[in-house]
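To the wet lab folks,

You asked to see what we're planning to order before we commit. Fair enough. Below is the target structure as tokens, and below that is the sequence we designed to fit it. If anything looks off to you, flag it before the synthesis order goes out.
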């Protein structure tokens, strides 16, 4: 297989992946509706431009003026689309400033120019240098805008697709200049779509890793199932502690509760910390302290000693009871009883 055939295969696979990525973002993203559509549109425009370049340079179709005009038009649209994406990442709920629409003026002028010449059969005089410069200018402009907003601390800009898209634009821009410089070498005709295809693969992996834009149904189902199981364990834990009053066992340990709930101790500890924002010992002592407070003020247990109340509440010693009580209530058990009886 020749190098040109390999580059064609890579380019065509990149086009397919770009369109698939646009579809996944459009259908599965949890981002703002307009941001989702705009990001999908950027990938579609890029993929279509790659497709035209690949088909023409591989010789599968002739380079008709209309196709050439479409390729250049897509090149003029990517920069402004990316700029609007950056603006909406910063303020997704605000309307676009009319000034931003002016960035599409070169594309509109070029479109009207192309339509006029194609209708009247005139030859299109298009200098690729201007298209390349347009892409480079927007690469610099968008990069500076992104860095400026990032330094201001806009959290929405962190972890999104913007750095990856800017990197892709830089790679494509560099490959364009190489293709132009080596225009006499047929191998370089497929350089841009091939490099863009490889960049698409990298961007897909990096984007999935660092961004929450794509939340597939499989992941959502897993999270829902995990959440249901988590709630079931919480209910079972509270039944053990509240209804069966397991906290009264003075030798109660994390391992004992974990075995009862058929969980790993680390999982149980993490669940308690996540749901109650407490460590296991503090969680258990909360119920023990509530029990001891009831015993301290109950007339039927008025003659009980502090040691007896501590043991009935699940504490192994008087000192452990005092330490836990004062830590949670701010006073000693004796002071608590006096305050309630006075």
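Sequence we intend to order:
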């Amino acid at each position: 297989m020749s190098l040109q055939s390999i580059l064609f295969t890579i380019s065509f696979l990149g086009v397919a992946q770009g369109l698939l990525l646009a579809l996944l973002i459009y259908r599965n993203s949890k981002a703002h509706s307009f941001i989702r559509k705009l990001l999908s549109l950027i990938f579609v425009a890029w993929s279509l431009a790659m497709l035209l370049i690949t088909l023409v340079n591989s010789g599968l179709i002739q380079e008709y003026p209309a196709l050439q005009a479409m390729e250049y038009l897509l090149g003029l649209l990517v920069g402004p689309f990316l700029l609007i994406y950056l603006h909406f990442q910063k303020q997704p709920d605000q309307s676009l400033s009319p000034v931003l629409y002016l960035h599409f003026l070169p594309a509109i002028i070029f479109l009207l120019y192309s339509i006029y010449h194609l209708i009247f059969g005139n030859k299109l005089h298009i200098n690729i240098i201007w298209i390349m410069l347009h892409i480079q200018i927007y690469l610099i402009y968008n990069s500076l805008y992104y860095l400026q907003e990032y330094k201001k601390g806009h959290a929405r800009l962190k972890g999104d697709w913007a750095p990856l898209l800017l990197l892709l634009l830089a790679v494509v821009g560099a490959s364009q200049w190489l293709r132009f410089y080596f225009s006499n070498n047929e191998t370089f005709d497929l350089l841009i779509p091939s490099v863009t295809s490889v960049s698409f693969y990298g961007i897909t992996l990096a984007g999935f890793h660092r961004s929450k834009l794509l939340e597939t149904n499989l992941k959502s189902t897993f999270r829902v199932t995990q959440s249901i199981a988590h709630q079931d364990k919480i209910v079972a834990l509270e039944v053990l502690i509240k209804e069966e009053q397991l906290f009264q066992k003075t030798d109660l340990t994390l391992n004992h509760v974990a075995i009862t709930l058929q969980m790993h101790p680390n999982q149980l500890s993490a669940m308690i910390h996540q749901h109650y924002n407490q460590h296991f010992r503090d969680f258990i002592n909360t119920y023990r302290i509530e029990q001891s407070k009831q015993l301290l003020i109950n007339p039927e247990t008025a003659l009980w000693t502090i040691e007896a109340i501590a043991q009935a509440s699940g504490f192994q010693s008087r000192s452990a009871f005092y330490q836990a009580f004062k830590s949670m209530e701010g006073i000693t058990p004796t002071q608590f009883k006096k305050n309630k009886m006075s």
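Structural context that might help your review: Residues 9 and 37 are 28 Å apart (CA to CA). Residues 217-243 form the longest helix (27 residues).

Thanks,
Computational group
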